[in-house]
Amino acid sequence: MQKRLLFDGRLLQFTINRLCQQLIENHGDFANSVLMGLQPRGIFLAERIRTSLESLLNKKILLGYLDTTFHRDDFRRRDAPIAPHETKVNFVIEGKNVILIDDVLFTGRSVRAALDAMVSFGRPEKVELLTLIDRMYSRDIPVEATYVGRRVNTVRSQRILVELKEQGMPEDNIWIMEKEDEA
């Protein structure tokens, strides 16, 4: 299996710092803005973004975890049921600027499901998307990220593997790799 390193820990931290600076440029002190990490993998990036923002702004930033399981368009099309993850949104998003955070933007279907799930918590003023990896030219749904760590040209036979310390990995690495043949 071929794989190529896109990010190591140093480059990942540099990219997170850059994304936080862009967020501060557009959201100031976050008085009317909140972060929402998409379950399951987007929450790890969202936690890092929040930690960096809190350090830079010297204030608490609201962060929620949003599960989209029951809003997915393939929910009933799978052989085995999808196990839901925890939704943890302890605040109202009515009139707020919401930044949805996920690790990889691929087809756009997860983001569409997140938009459906999010309205249970109010009607936001504005919704933006932050993603670490934007797999360009792969959309099934017209979704575009506002904040992008890196844009990568991929084909369907490839996948992005995100390995973070928070997931139990020894170090942070993000790879692009060929999917294994399903023979």
Describe the model.
It is a single chain. This protein has 183 residues and is an alpha/beta fold. It has one domain (3-12, 35-68, 84-178): Rossmann fold, CATH 3.40.50. Helices cover 25% and strands 30% of the residues. It contains 3 helices and 8 strands; from the N terminus they run E-H-E-H-E-E-H-E-E-E-E. It has helices at 9-27, 42-57, 109-118, and strands at 3-8, 33-38, 63-66, 97-105, 126-136, 147-153, 158-163, 173-178. The strands form 2 sheets. A 5-stranded parallel sheet has the order 3-2-4-5-6. A 3-stranded antiparallel sheet has the order 1-8-7. Helix 1 packs across helix 2. The mean pLDDT is 89. This is Bifunctional pyr operon transcriptional regulator/uracil phosphoribosyltransferase PyrR. InterPro entries: PRTase-like, PRTase_dom, PyrR_bifunctional. One of its GO terms (molecular function) is uracil phosphoribosyltransferase activity.
Computed Rg: 16 Å
Q: Let me know the largest β-sheet.
A: 5 strands, parallel
Number of helices: 3
Q: Kindly state the number of beta strands.
A: 8
CATH class: Alpha Beta
- CATH topology, what is it called? Rossmann fold
Distance between the termini: 14 Å
How would the global form be characterised? globular
Helix/strand/pairing class, anyone?
A: alpha/beta
Low-confidence stretches: none
| Order of strands in the sheet with most strands | 3-2-4-5-6
Number of domains: 1
Estimate the mean pLDDT confidence. Answer: 89
Along the chain, the helix and strand elements come as EHEHEEHEEEE
CATH arch. level architecture? 3-Layer(aba) Sandwich
Strand percentage: 25-35%
User: Level of helix content?
Assistant: 10-25%
Enzyme class: transferase
GO molecular function, one term: uracil phosphoribosyltransferase activity
Organism: Imperialibacter roseus
EC number: 2.4.2.9
